[in-house]
Amino acid sequence: QVQLTESGGDLVQAGGSLRLSCLMSGRTNKMTSIGWFRQAPGKGRALVASIDWRGEKRNYSASVKGRFTVSVDNAKNIMYLQMDSLTPEDTAVYFCNSYPLQFYRWGQGTQVTVSS
User: Fold this and answer.
1) pLDDT, position 66
2) Alpha-carbon torsion 10, 113, 106, 78, what sign?
3) Cis peptide before 100 (omega within 30 of 0)
4) What is the chain's alpha carbon radius of gyration, rounded to the nearest angstrom?
5) Which of 67, 51, 58, 72 is nearest to 17 (CA)?
6) Dihedral sign computed on CA atoms, order 74, 77, 83, 84
7) pLDDT score recorded for residue 61
8) How far apart, in whole angstroms, are the C-alpha atoms of residue 50 and residue 93?
9) Per-10-residue mean pLDDT for the chain, 116 residues long?
């Protein structure tokens, strides 16, 4: 069973940066990609960025492209999300999971709040 632990969320001013981490404990399936998702208040969960375990294939949603960078440490089973030029629209709880299918039980997520 894989356990997902997200961390790194915080309150930050617009224009600031944060780095999120996702630790995947257990027997992860490294034949599939992994991704960061976010859920803003009153909205559904949406994909933000995805990456394969080799770190070669990266995809971003239009709203974060050019501002966020996803990376992975295959040896440590950790995925990162570097978030720059944050805006209040980035305020959400951020989660990680496999992609495109979410095989694992969702973690608690990490709260990112961007003040204007």
Assistant:
1) 98
2) negative
3) yes
4) 13
5) 67
6) negative
7) 98
8) 17
9) 96 98 94 96 96 95 98 96 98 97 96 97
Following DSSP, what letter does each residue of 9-78 receive, concatenated?
--EEETT--EEEEEEEES---TTSEEEEEEE-TTS-EEEEEEE-TTS--EEE-TTTTTTEEEEEETTTTE
**Cβ–Cβ < 8 Å for 52, 33:** yes
Separation of CA 74 from chain center: 15
Give every strand in the sheet of 68-73, ordered side by side: 3-7, 18-25, 78-83, 68-73
| Nearby residues of 31 by Cβ (< 8 Å), 6 or more positions away | none
**Type of residue at 82:** Q
Cα-to-chain-centroid distance, residue 89: 15
Distance CA 104, CA 29 (A): 10
